[in-house]
Every structure is written in C-alpha cells, then in structure tokens.
Write a structure and sequence with these properties.
By secondary structure, this protein is of the alpha/beta class. The protein contains seven helices and eight strands. It has two domains: about 140 residues, Rossmann fold (3-Layer(aba) Sandwich); about 55 residues, Ybab, Chain: A (2-Layer Sandwich), CATH 3.30.1310. The chain has a five-stranded parallel β-sheet with strand order 2-1-6-7-8, sandwiched between helices. It has a three-stranded antiparallel β-sheet with strand order 3-4-5, sandwiched between helices. Strand 6, helix 5 and strand 7 form a beta-alpha-beta unit.
C-alpha cells in the first residue's frame, strides 16, 4: 500500500520550496518568476513563491489525451500554440492524424479559455532574460511540462527550472533534457500516479485558481 508523502498541495509546495533552496541556495537572489501550471500546480506554486519571495503567475499547458483514454497523454499544448507530440505513443496506439488535430484544437481552445478566466486582460509576466521556476503538483510522463518549456524557451527565458513535489523517474529524466534544472522533492521507485502521494488531492476549480492568484498579489 502506498503511503502519502504530503498532506495536501500547500504542504507539498512548502516542502518543495525548501528542496529548491537546499538544491539551489542562490536561487532567491536570481529574482525568479514562479509559473504554476493550473489547476493543481497553483497551490504548490503559491507556497513556492512564498518561500522564494517571488512573484507568481500561471502558465497554461494541456495534455492531449489518447482516443478513449483521455488520462493517457500522447502530447500536450501550451500558451503560445506550442505542441509536443509523443511520437512513440502515437505510433503504438495507432492514433490517426485527424484525431490528433481535433484534440489539439480542442485543447488549444481550453488554453485560451483558461487564460481569460484566470488573467482577464492582464498581460503575462515577461520571462525574457529571467530565471523561471515552472511548478506542477507532480510529474508523470512530463509531456505537459515539456510543451510549457518549449513555449517559455521561445519567450526568451534565460534559465528554466522545473519543480514538482513528486516525480516519476521516467518523467524526471525526460524533462531534464528540456530544462536547465529539475528539482523533485521525491522520486518514488514505484510512481503509479500523482494523486496517490497526497492525503488530500481534491480537484480545484477556476475560482480556486483566481482566488490564489489574488492572494499572491495581495
């Protein structure tokens, strides 16, 4: 039986903030921007931003689910229209091109909807030349985070750090190829799923995200 590592996402974020400072003791001095992937990454990011005394914003990336198995990621899209495809998974599952285009357009529309819902007309934080800490509540395959990293590289970020409370060994290795640094508070030998490592893994709402962003700027 798996024993949870974290009480909830806020607890996970506090511990992740400590892990970041232990691994990168000069990070706070780099004046990083904390970008959280909604929805679950936002309470984690809020705690990390507090630990680093850094600004918090959201960066939206969406998994592309396999036909009939939406929880299985075959790719991802992110703000700015960046798309990452897991070609091995697409080939293994014989995913047709028309399905891939359909799910891509649907998830890009959801990216835009969430941008309006969370940020309104407010411009995003400018990442050009900055150190960015990209935060999620867990790293499984890493495909969603890789899409976000591609978009942030295109936006001119100087240094990209990925931080998650719990990671699969496979996801950590894959993301390490695209990020400058990956910091995981825990890498269990048998990962199985992000939610298993939390006592409270309650799904969040758009309003929860808006409330946390307001708290971050208060």
């Amino acid at each position: 039986m798996t024993t949870a590592l974290f009480a909830d996402r806020s607890d996970a974020g506090a511990r992740l903030g400590k892990a970041l400072l232990d691994r990168l003791p000069t990070l706070a001095g780099e004046r990083p921007i904390i970008l959280a992937i909604p929805r679950g990454g936002v309470p984690v990011g809020l705690a990390v931003a507090k630990a680093l005394a850094a600004p918090l914003d959201v960066f939206i990336a969406r998994k592309l689910g396999a036909p009939g198995h939406e929880e299985l990621g075959i790719g991802a899209v992110a703000t700015g229209g960046v798309r990452v495809i897991d070609r091995d998974a697409v080939a293994m599952l014989h995913v047709p091109d028309d399905y891939l285009e359909e799910v891509t357009q649907r998830e890009l529309a959801e990216v835009e909807r969430r941008m309006r819902a969370y940020r309104g007309d407010a411009p995003p934080l400018d990442v050009k030349g900055r150190t960015v800490v990209l935060v999620d509540d867990g790293l499984a395959t890493g495909v969603t985070v890789r899409a976000a990293l591609g978009a942030l590289r295109a936006g001119g970020a100087a240094r990209l750090i990925v931080a998650a409370p719990v990671c699969s060994a496979e996801g950590e290795a894959l993301v390490s190829r695209a990020a400058d640094v990956v910091v995981c508070a825990a890498v269990p030998p048998r990962f199985e799923g992000v939610g298993l490592w939390y006592d409270d893994f309650t799904q969040m709402t758009d309003q929860d995200v808006r409330d946390m962003l307001l708290r971050a700027t208060a």
